[in-house]
Amino acid sequence: MGRQRPGTPTLEEVAALAGVGRGTVSRVINNAAGVRDSTRRAVQRAIAELGYVPNLAARSLAGHRADAVALVMTETDWRMFGEPFFTEIVHAVGDALTDTPVQLLLTLVRTDTERRRFVEYARGGRVDGVLLMSVHAADPLPDMLAKAGLPTVMLGRRSGDESVTYVDADNAGGARGAVTYLLESGRRAIGAISGPLDMYVAECRLRGYREALELGGVAADPSLVVEGDDFTEETGRRAMTSLIGRHPELDAVFAASDTLAAGALEALGAAGRRVPRDVAVIGFDDLHPARPTDPALTTVRQPLGEIGRAMVRLLLEEMEESPVAWRHVILRTELVRRDTA
Question: Partners of 194 in the beta sheet?
């Protein structure tokens, strides 16, 4: 402290005066997302009171910052990039970074070779952090990034005991509420079209379906469940065709995504089943504006915009402060009642 030049305030002094951490001051100076307005004002007052002037060039050199983060999709089918769910998340993440100096890079990582290559690329200082989407249960990429010391935030999780920071929706609770609504509407022969069960999101939504049946006193019939290979419309069409072939008495179906539900609606129409009079349909995600259906789809809304913003907020915080604990954020869902149920 004795070697400090009089009249030259430090970042630590600004943080102490504002009553916040050093990383929060850095985020305010960089105009980064994820800082409450009241906190931002307190830091700005402290900067003005102390006359602190950030040395942008020195900070950049000292931190070796690339001012870039990677949004990595691990789905093997490149066509999934065109699905509304993924485009909504990309938009939300991009919007959250708009007022920061951070550039967003999009990349697809599918094989072991691509995983190793990406980790080497990221460790080389090309990006400051990584956002991961569509990670399957056995994917080692999150652990490879954590071992390399790269700040990482996942959309969703690989299992119930995930050790990497993630943001997720209450998938089981949302599915449970949707199926409970169908039961309360008098439906009893309720089928389910799940996503691939090597993804925890699909496992949770199917678990919520089963929990609702149990709570409603309806025996779960395994033949009323079709596991999809993915979350696409074509999978929804095939699964719905299979369900009504096995169970002509089917009077409702819960689909684990809106795209699956859209395919199910097409199959029901082709089979001459009226929706919702003959068969009620509920989806998941609330991508109605991006993928309109006729009739309008009843669905479980997960807050995609807030999910994207929360992912960015957590990643920026990890890039600045290197927290000692993983952080897990689960956001609420909401049943949106439209015409199909």
Answer: 227
Per-residue pLDDT tens digits for 174-233: 999 999 999 999 999 999 999 999 999 999 999 999 999 999 999 999 999 999 999 999
How does pLDDT run across 249-270, given as a tens digit for each residue? 999 999 999 999 999 999 999 9
What is the amino acid identity at position 185?
S
Strand partners, 253: 191, 281
Lowest mean pLDDT among 2-6, 102-106, 141-145, 155-159: 2-6
Angle 22-29/11-18 helices, nearest 10 degrees? 100
Phi, psi of 137 (to 5 degrees): -55, -40
Give me the sign of the Cα torsion angle 158, 304, 234, 227: positive
Q: How far is CA 100 from CA 31, 170, 223, 277, 308, in A?
A: 6, 29, 51, 50, 15
Alpha carbons within 13 A on the beta-carbon side of 218: 21
Q: How many CA atoms lie within 13 A of 257 on its CB side?
A: 26
Calpha distance 119→307 (Å, rounded): 24
pLDDT band (50, 70, 90) for residue 168: very high
What is the spatial distance between Cα 146 and Cα 158, in angstroms, rounded to a whole number? 14
- Listing DSSP states for 124-165 in one string gives III-SEEEEES--TT--HHHHHHHTT--EEEES-SSTT--S-
More confident residue, 269 or 324: 269
Give CA–CA dist 131/142, Å, rounded.
10
Pairing of strands 280-285, 298-301: parallel
CB 130 within 8 A of CB 147: no
Lowest-confidence pick of 56-60, 120-124, 160-164, 224-228: 56-60
- Separation of alpha carbons 154 and 169, rounded Å: 12
For the beta sheet containing 298-301, the strands, ordered from the edge strand earlier in sequence to the opposite edge, are 225-227, 190-194, 252-255, 280-285, 298-301, 334-336
